[in-house]
Design a protein that fits this description.
By secondary structure, the protein is α+β, with helices and mostly antiparallel strands. The protein has one domain: Histidine kinase-like ATPase, C-terminal domain (Heat Shock Protein 90). Helix content is 33%, strand content 30%. It is built from 3 helices and 7 strands, in the order E-H-H-E-E-E-E-H-E-E. A 5-stranded antiparallel β-sheet has the order 1-2-3-7-6, with helices on one face. Strands 4-5 form a two-stranded antiparallel ribbon. Helix 2 packs antiparallel against helix 3.
Amino acid sequence: MPTVEVTFTPLPAHVRTARLVATAVARRSGVDESLLDEVRLAVGEACSRAVEAHRTHCPRTPIRVALTDDSERFEVVVTDAAPAEEMPAELASSSVAPEPVPLEGGGVVHQLPPGVGLAVISGLADDVRISPAGDGTSVAMSWKRRAE
């Protein structure tokens, strides 16, 4: 069960690198080409969520990404060290609307409620597990490998 581990400082620019590494390792692990976009998007969502949490709570602590390949599945685990946030119950419905947030000097920006990224991930991966990891959260996502 080979594992590739990557840690990165919580900067948005590093999310792209994590996506590229995950896509390359997924391809090498035998994930079907048709699923590589889902891997890239899900890893990007999980890493972006971790970056945002770290920027608020622990900006100097790195984020950990572990990519594991076994005989049947490819798994990515993104682990942060920020205090866990709960997914709002309304995310279970498909009618989650962006919340308007007033800007200084007038105007409004629309933000999705916290946890929407986790809901997106659950639609992209075959299996998603969200669990506490020390003081933070671990988001484990997996996809089936293609039959050889």
